[in-house]
Write a structure and sequence with these properties.
Keywords: DNA-binding, Transcription, Transcription regulation. This protein is 40% helix and 24% strand. It has nine helices and 14 strands. The protein has a five-stranded mixed beta sheet, with helices on one face. It has a four-stranded mixed beta sheet with strand order 8-11-7-12. Helix 1 crosses helix 3.
Length: 302
């Protein structure tokens, strides 16, 4: 019989392949060779006398037995993650590392300043911050806190609303002089609209005689980019109208570089949540940082 600790190690490697359904992606994340990973999976299948994966040149699929093993391994992975979190937060002094995952816009607009001000009070606390547009699962990855822009925060985590913000529609004087000023939402169909690829439909709300009047406009434009900073730069260059988060456009409107349009409409409001696992909320550095973070948004609309 194989030594149990080696079998557990191989099953953990299997769970990573099963998560990605790819030997290459799993090997890259684990920083091991694909050939070694494949060998270890074959070994554990031999030990269990069960095929866990169906391999082909194009894809990897789970067998029925593989699905059962994966479900059990996810429980084990969560237990290991809980142990790691408990140990990392067992020291009640205000020191150690806080791991945060957040959207890129929140990292640049708010998070770095908030973390710096916290470290001025508690210099023994360090931060490891992951920013990007991907969503990390706190039930699977070792992050202490996550910032989420969502209308449905995860039910298996504690969620505290931080703030909310709107999108604005703006354009440069150069563009408006050339293309005209849109007066009604339907006019947007006749303009170059700079959009995120996933949100080409622009939804505008306004209250008319007590009723919510909704305009859902399918826009078009010369290009779409999944980075609002790039879209704002294109707007500043006179390439079209942009719909982007308020905090990115407000400085340009204040400086006169852009005009805000449709000010009587609400455009795609978003809620920002702080999300974290319940079992570590009593950590001293967690409690203090959460209080500090919430305090920064006390005056924000909810």
């Amino acid at each position: 019989m194989a030594k149990s600790h080696k079998r557990i190690e191989r099953l953990l490697l299997f769970s990573k392949v099963a998560e990605h359904l790819s030997f290459s992606k799993a090997a890259d994340e684990l920083d091991i060779s694909r050939s070694y990973l494949s060998q270890q999976i074959s070994q554990v299948e031999s030990e269990l006398k069960t095929q866990l994966l169906i391999r082909s040149t194009r894809k990897v699929r789970l067998t029925t037995e593989g699905q059962k093993v994966l479900r059990q391994m996810l429980d084990i992975n969560r237990t290991l993650l809980d142990i790691e979190r408990d140990l990392s937060h067992s020291d009640q002094s205000v020191s150690g590392v806080l791991r945060i995952t957040a959207p890129a816009f929140f990292g640049s607009a708010y998070l770095m300043q908030i973390c710096n001000s916290f470290r001025q009070q508690y210099p023994q606390v360090e931060f490891e911050i992951d920013v990007g547009n991907h969503l990390e699962d706190l039930a699977k990855r070792n992050y202490d806190l996550a910032i989420r822009v969502t209308e449905q925060p995860p039910e298996n985590m504690i969620a505290r609303q931080l703030t909310c913000y709107e999108h604005w529609i703006c354009a440069s004087d150069e563009y408006l002089a050339r293309a005209g000023i849109p007066e009604q939402p339907a006019d947007l169909r006749h303009h170059q609209c700079l959009s995120h690829p996933d949100w080409r439909n622009w939804v505008l709300h306004r209250i008319v005689k007590g009723h919510d009047e909704v305009s859902d406009i399918a826009t078009h434009g010369g290009f779409a980019v999944n980075d609002y900073g790039v879209l704002v730069e294109a707007c500043l260059a006179g390439n079209g109208l942009v719909r982007a988060p308020q905090h990115l456009l407000e400085p340009h409107v204040a400086a006169g570089r852009l005009q805000r349009l449709f000010q009587n409409y609400q455009i795609e409001s978003r809620h920002v949540w702080l999300v974290y696992p319940q079992r570590i909320e009593h950590s001293t550095r967690m409690k203090l940082f959460i209080a500090h973070l919430l305090a920064q948004f006390e005056s924000s609309p909810t």
